[in-house]
Design brief:
Layout lengths: L19 H9 L3 H12 L25 H20 L10 H12 L8 H8 L13 H4 L6 E5 L3 H13 L2 E5 L8 H4 L31 H14 L6 E2 L3 E8 L4 E8 L2 E7 L1 E4 L23 E3 L13 E5 L3 H10 L5 E6 L5 E3 L9 H9 L3 H13 L22 H17 L4 H6 L12 E3 L2 H6 L4 E5 L3 E4 L3 E4 L4 E3 L2 E4 L13 E3 L6 H5 L17 E3 L13 H21 L4 E4 L1 H16 L2 H4 L21 H8 L7 E4 L1
Parallel strand pairs: 1-2, 1-7, 2-3, 4-18, 7-19, 8-17, 9-10, 9-17, 10-13, 11-12
Antiparallel strand pairs: 4-5, 5-6, 14-15, 15-16, 20-21
Helix pairs in contact: 1-3, 2-3, 2-4, 2-12, 7-17, 17-20
The structure holds NADP nicotinamide-adenine-dinucleotide phosphate (NAP).
NADP nicotinamide-adenine-dinucleotide phosphate binds next to helix 10.
Length: 650
């Protein structure tokens, strides 16, 4: 057997006892892209990688991932033969293939060539050979046994738990401060109806804590909240977390070379010192309320933000207004539409919809069987998702300077995507041209977040009790409702703000003061920057996760980004301890040079080139959220810190 995963959620594979006919029925429902790769990996039979049967993971929306029916049938038959031989041989998997063979399998799976640079990255993502290759390579007891060193982690969401796990593995003393009374961050706070992940779960999960038995391809909020809770339990992280405790300020001492945190918890405010601080507070955390709309706050009925869902408000039969049609609103509107009396959808800018037929589907029994019985099928599936949603898709959102897309596309591929998605909207709203028109974006695909759809958006907006108020904007909010641009007052019982988050106000509302008392928010002046999203000059030993320019647009998994960031932070801590120093401070020139590159590259991407408004840009119009390079590049740059990028203090 190949080594099994490090995940606490994955047990031994089940033996295969099914008949040939039963296996054929299962393989009929298998996702094709990972099928032959998994069998080649499990059996060592590289002849299964027949070029004429190679699906294209980027054609995942096409039936059979772009293969003809005949090719698909031949691929399944080939797989059946291999699976039967595997069963008859006692389900004994071949030894872990050589790197050369893994590379061949990868190149087959992505249809690419020259994937060598990706090999180590993807082996990590696969949990290849059952190893957790992102675990710290040092332990404090070995590098600095007698040096007291204590780290504060702010937030116990996805990134904070991950940091706590890595610090535990390295044997570094730490405390996690969490303002809520449970772990999970965004998956704890967002309880609005319909909340679910829009990145397939087989990829949206820790590489070292993968799950094969996700109930849905895109799990719902309760399932994700449970997953992060189960990780905290299985990895023994809860003891270091102080719940209901918010960090109010962090102040660096130039004398002590330490941070002083003021924290407010259940028993009052206290002050504590730490050697390093990791901010894992997330970007999409603080609601963006439309306070600039005249009359905001005057509404007399219940009004709340999607991320502060008020379950005590009974929406049944009520006239409800939802402001916004971003990812959150497009999940909650279909859920509440059948319950409410009338639903008014205030749309300012439509989102591009990515057709996702299985968005709400449960994982079929056949797929669950494959995850549980066929070695590495789940891992190759994860890899195919990783590729098609990540670096495999980046060309589609990269600007071609020669291309004149009249503000609606940035390259020929991007324009093809625009046409395909425009046709999708037209087909979805067939017979309702005014809605098709309202729901067709006029900016490049990828300039704003692409929202997943399985047909539910059109089914919802075409309901008799739903009305879309499009484009004209909102003139005012009144005690009774909302006044539209043409002066009509729409009287409603409830207002729901699906208006997003103050994403570019990184680390707010916390007060942070670095060297010489430098105030971080004054220093940034609304234009947050960091080196690799992690370190900021003059703020020694302050490390950010999901910091400036670390958001990913073409929908790779943000868990991957955090895993890279945490490894980098552990590398920096290891450097400090091994060199007998107290702190690291990133060099200003290194930071500045990096930011020049980031800005230039972001302008070459759909989200930076387009004029359309989005939460990717800050008040200065700069893209302060997004990583413009490949996923590979973030991995390469965060493998281990270059000591020359930093000044060691103490
Ligand atoms: P968002 O994408 O920022 O959407 C906010 C919506 O509110 C937009 O339609 C925006 O219009 C509108 N809006 C904001 N202020 C307004 C105003 N003053 N008047 C009228 N309309 C206003 O926020 P979100 O939907 O909460 O999503 C944020 C991000 O969270 C997503 O992009 C995604 O990364 C993440 N998310 C993920 C999931 C998931 O994984 N399933 C679910 C939800 C959210 P404009 O477009 O014109 O600005």
């Amino acid at each position: 057997m190949p080594a099994r995963s490090t995940s606490p959620f994955i047990g031994e594979l089940e033996p295969i006892t099914e008949s040939d006919d039963a296996l054929r029925a299962i393989l009929d429902q298998a996702e094709l892209p990972p099928l032959l790769p998994a069998l080649a990996y499990a059996t060592g039979d590289m002849s299964l990688l027949r070029e004429d049967l190679r699906p294209d993971p980027l054609m995942f929306l096409m039936p059979n991932a772009g293969l003809t029916d005949e090719q698909a049938a031949a691929a399944r038959e080939l797989a059946l033969g291999a699976l039967v031989r595997f069963r008859d041989g006692g389900c004994v998997a071949a030894p872990v293939p050589s790197d050369d063979d893994v590379l061949r399998i990868m190149e087959f799976a992505v249809g690419g060539t020259d994937m060598a640079a990706y090999l180590p990255l993807l082996e990590e993502e696969l949990g290849h050979a059952g190893e957790d290759r992102r675990a710290p390579t040092w332990r404090k007891d070995d590098v600095a046994p007698d040096v007291p060193f204590r780290v504060a982690v702010i937030g116990a969401g996805m990134s904070g738990l991950l940091t706590a796990h890595r610090l535990t593995q390295a044997g570094v003393d730490h405390v996690v401060f969490e303002k809520n009374d449970d772990v999970g961050g965004t998956w704890y706070e967002n309880t609005y109806p319909g909340c679910r992940v829009d990145n397939p779960n087989h990829a949206y999960s820790y590489s070292f804590a993968q799950r094969h038995d996700w109930p849905n391809h895109y799990s719902t909020q309760p399932v994700l909240h449970e997953y992060f809770g189960a990780c905290a339990d299985a990895l023994g992280l809860r003891d270091t977390i102080r719940f209901r405790t918010e960090v109010e300020s962090a102040v660096w001492s130039d004398e002590d070379l330490r941070w002083t945190l003021t924290v407010r918890g259940p028993s009052g405010t206290s002050v504590e010192q730490f050697d390093a601080v990791v901010s894992a507070v997330g970007q999409l955390n603080r609601p963006n309320l439309p306070t600039t709309i005249p009359g905001y706050g005057s509404f007399e009925g219940p009004a709340f933000h999607s991320a502060r869902w008020d379950a005590s408000v009974d929406l049944a039969g009520k006239r409800v207004a939802v402001i916004g049609t971003g990812a959150s609103a497009m999940q909650l509107i279909p859920e509440i539409a059948p319950t409410v009396g009338e639903l008014l959808v205030f749309q300012r800018t439509p989102a591009w919809m990515g057709p996702t037929p299985d968005y709400h589907d449960e994982v079929s029994d056949a797929l669950q069987w494959l995850y549980g019985h066929l070695p590495s099928y789940a891992e190759w599936n994860r890899f195919c998702i990783f590729w098609r949603l990540g670096d495999g898709a980046i060309a589609g959102v990269t600007v071609d300077p020669e291309w004149d897309g009249k503000g609606e596309s940035v390259s020929v591929i991007n324009d093809m995507m625009r046409l395909m998605l425009t046709e999708y909207v037209a087909a979805e709203f067939a017979g309702r041209p005014e809605l098709a028109d309202a729901c067709t974006p006029h900016y490049p695909v990828g300039a704003k977040r692409i929202v997943r759809d399985n047909g539910i958006w059109a089914r919802t907006l075409t309901r008799d009790n739903v009305r879309v108020l499009d484009g004209g904007g909102i003139q005012a909010i009144t005690p009774k409702g909302i006044v539209t641009a043409d002066g009509t007052e729409e009287v409603v019982d409830v207002i729901i703000y699906g208006t997003g988050f103050t994403a570019s106000k990184f680390l707010t509302p916390m007060s942070v003061k670095g060297e010489g008392g430098l105030d971080l928010h004054e220093h940034w002046a609304g234009d947050a920057r960091a080196y690799l999203g992690v370190t900021i000059p003059h703020f020694p030993n302050l490390f950010c996760l999901y910091g400036p320019n670390t958001n990913i647009v073409v929908n790779g998994s943000i868990v991957y980004f955090s895993e890279c960031g945490v490894r980098y932070i552990l590398g920096l801590l290891g450097l400090v301890l091994a060199r007998g120093a107290k702190a690291v401070d990133v060099r200003q020139d290194v930071h500045d040079r990096f930011n020049v590159q980031v800005d230039a590259e972001n302008r070459r991407m759909a989200w930076g080139a387009s004029e359309v408004n989005s939460w990717y840009k800050n008040d200065h119009g700069r893209v302060a959220q997004n990583w413009p390079f490949t996923l590979l590049e973030y991995w390469q740059r965060t493998q281990s810190p270059n000591p020359e990028d930093y000044e060691l203090l103490g």
